[in-house]
Amino acid sequence: MLSDVMSQLTDGYLLLVIFCSAVYGLVIGAIPGLTALMASALLVPFVIFMQPLPAVAAIITASAMAIFAGDIPGALLRMPGTPASAAYANEANDMVRRGKGAAALGAGLIASSLGGLVSAVILSLAAPSLAKIALVFSSVEYFWLGVLGLSCATFVAGGSLFKGLASLFLGLSLATVGMDPISGIPRFSLGSPNLLGGFGLIPVLIGLFAISELLRNAANPPHADALPKTTGSILIPSLSNLWRHRLGTLRGSAIGTMTGALPGAGSDIAAWISYAIARRGSRAGRRDDDHGATERIMSASSANNASLGGAYIPATVFGIPGDAITAIVISVMFIKGINPGPTLFLNKPEVIYTIFGIFFIANLLLIPLGILCIRGFGYILRLPRAYVSPVVLLFCILGAFSVENTLFAVGLIAVFGLLGYVMESNDIPLAPAILGLILGPMIEETFMTTILKSQGDLGIFFDRQIGAVLGVVTILAWVLALGAQAWPALARRNHRNPYSK
Amino acid sequence: MKFKSAVAGLLMSLAMSPMVAAEDSWPTQPVKMVVIAGAGGGSDYVFRLLSRELEQNTGQPFSVINQAQGGGVVGMTTYTQAAPDGYTLGQMSPFAQYRLLDQADFTSDSFSPIALVNMDPAAVHVAADSDLHSLQDIVDRLKADPASLTISCGGTCNASWDIPFVSLMLDEGVDVAALNLIPAKGSAAGLQELISGGMDVVLSSLPETDSLREAGLVKNLAVFADERLKRYPDVPTVEEAVGQDVTGGTWRGVAGPAGMSPELVKAIQAQVKKAFDSEAFQQGMADRGFGAVWMNARELGDFMAEHEAQTQRVLGELRQ
Predict the structure, then answer these.
(1) Nearest 5 degrees, angle CA B39-CA B188-CA A337?
(2) A495, part of any domain
(3) Tally of domains within chain A
(4) Interface contact flag, B73 A449, Cβ < 8 Å
(5) Which residue segments constitute the domains of chain B, with CATH numbers given?
(6) Nearest CA in chain B to A450
(7) Are A65 and A43 spatial neighbours (Cβ–Cβ below 8 Å)?
(8) How many angstroms separate the CA atoms of B177 and B316, rounded?
(9) pTM
(10) Chain B residues close to A181, C-beta within 8 Å
């Protein structure tokens, strides 16, 4: 079987498809406004009539490349290229401003590649048994997972906790617009069919991050030398970074694979959770210098790429998509007669292992192509802003339109661009708002579904084993977080009065 | 206001008269096909398959535009508000629930029906280890206590999958207003709930459970069709299972905005029929287990009226 897999993988046409979609994915991901989901969706009309393996390979490769490449505009322009890079775009941009651009992007690149490889190994070794675990999750477990994810916003909020929460609640309130996920009754839609589906995540992301940044650049043009060059070697320092941050990267890869394996939780949530854990849970990640930033970037960046592989665990074993990108892949697999399911592992193991093999090739290819991409975009994005900004704006409009296919989405990016500008100028962080918009609908839907199942009995949230564990972990996380806030004050008081008893 | 729009209509029809004269040769320019679901889903697949054939037969590009927002309302609004010139067409699928739920005001008069190409009956699924062994078990259980089972609609409720089920329960004399119907984000999410033990019954089409049935995790109890499906010879029809002749499910067709001329509809219908009959389309549908079912414009129009009546009856009862 191994020789079957190898001969399929070394097919010239397949490799050509992988190479072309790699370049395509990197370019789409690196352009602010164009996302990994869009890269996959735009491939559908092309791959739908291709041979099965190249078709699947094209989407796998393009999405893996685009998720990494989203880091590039995130670091250089502070505009995350995909929602998955939003968690650490600020951090990476700060490093670039300190002249550590090559280190920041190199760290993200090597972590992305490693995250992808780790998830591919897990996928190849344990997909069927892990898929069974993923299928134990019901709405109760998803509810707790959502709440845990939401807590990340408070744990990672640098600066003012109050402002972080304000941003989070803004995101949550925006998430209530549109049809009620349970009854289908329109809410705050003002009679407009465009608002029935709520605010699309991609137009809001483009508006809040990219358009607001363009507005700020227009209002206070940065000095020509504001952005230090991303010169210096990328590969060698990032390899030594990989050794120094091996634990964080491996932890991120594991978290990413697990999160990705849960249907409904994608690369954006994986990056958030891993980032929050690195920030609070590791000694290196708590530091506020380059070392700490690198640790956090590598944890989150490995997680979002690993989640792509993780998503294929339930997808290939049970035909249940882990995220929107795998939903597209599953449908392409069905069309091509590779029907996902346990029998696929029994009857056509060479096909499934070739698909897993594509993950290895794509993630290895990510390193050389990623370096070229960082260099290339490094030059382009450092051209005078007067030339770059209009082009970025053009792509933002294009990206918003092509995801939603409505002009309304283009209006949305303008409105949210203005909102983002106002928020930033008042030091209100943008990222928690995006987190609220991602998790709000998930929490509402799973909460309502659970309550409907139990007909109003709240005990159901602790009735199931895994659900109860997740619930306790979530509550503990809150207690610990609040305790950590309160502890210094308590400790000071005790210190002042050591023998008060 | 009325006068103005009449004048505008007149001007528009004057402006379009050269095109109207060329109806026989439809299409003479690229055609937009609005799909009310995202890229990669079942609807997207059916329409891309159809569009590819139309493109090859007519030599004009057919571009598929995905507008899934608002559960399909946005896509339907787009094409029903376009000019009825035959160059903006769209997916015709269950629409009556939108008006009854105050989401939009489509009626069958908002569309020019052209042809139906696909119909997939709803089916009833339970987990493999469930103590419900037949549809009769479910009926008995619900007759005794309508709220005793959690039932996933396999998507939004008041839609393709649960309406035939509720209409069966109405016929059986179950108090449907007390049923515990729970919406899901889609059939995959509903099935995930079923397997994780969070739900007793899931309603969706049969092909959607293929992988899980193969894995031995899901049992199919009955299908809402007139006769057993060729691909699933072991799944009894509802009539065989409980003796009530109830059918229903989802369906996909091609429609345009209201006000298309009968000649134009005829010309488009002929092209769609040609694409429908092609081997590639039939094979593509069979590959995914989708039912290729044909209805012409008139039959589709009647069917849409029936769909409105059934939806109204069921939603009326559910709301009591």
Answers:
(1) 60
(2) no
(3) 1
(4) no
(5) 24-119+250-318 (3.40.190.150), 123-242 (3.40.190.10)
(6) B198
(7) no
(8) 10
(9) 0.79
(10) 183, 185
